[in-house]
Amino acid sequence: MTEVSGKSPLDHWQDACDLLAEEEAKYEAMPNKKLIPAQKKLLKIADVKLKVAELSLTKDDDVLSEGCKNYLVNLYGWIKYKKWTAPENSGYNKSVKGTSVEGLSIEMINKLDGTNYSKNEEKFTNDYLIGCPDIVDAEGKMVIDVKSSWNIESFLSNVNKELSKNYWWQMQGYMALLDFKKAEVNFCLVTTPEHIIQSEIDKRVGENYSAEEIRDNLVFDNIPESERRLRFVVERDDEAIEKLYKRIRKCREYLPSIEQLHLGMK
Question: 3 φ, ψ to 5°?
Fold first, then answer.
């Protein structure tokens, strides 16, 4: 499932609310509220409150963000001409690893959880979405997405923080498609296939790295499997799914106008 970035009016309102809470906390922490810095802080708080009030008038508007519109323009190019945006830096080896080791990641999950999952190849569709989850647990009514990390840094970057919004929405989409109530995102760290290791050595040896150092940083079998999996549980949010459907309907209304704008500028 493809993610569409860009902030909505509700996002901008929430950002302003967060800023207001932050500024008010700073003011409350000031020991002497009669001094000039405290007075200046009050003026800033007043400005932010005004901004919150202005944004509250439009926060519930279903307006397409610029990021969403840009994505739709690219989608139009694919629909009409079958041309897609060529990536400037594809991170080829990272992408290849993610695909190549998917089976190894699922095998590790099975060992850790005592399950017998296999890679799902079936695509699911409804009137709004299409997706192919990595694991479909029909008996447990749960979908699992597997993210195979490139290295220890990218793996541990998921520690002590919430699941990204993109992945959270991806799971909502999968649960909507399968009518499930629960989903998981599993980040797994498994050893990189030999041909990718060799490719990295060929590219990077001499960049202050030896071949041994490059190999060592791409092999993880010396780390216990129980320490090479991070699991995030996601619960179904029906209100969020309805908002997603509403946004898709809005996108479908906007998409035909791109061709009118395009052909009108010939």
Answer: -95, 145
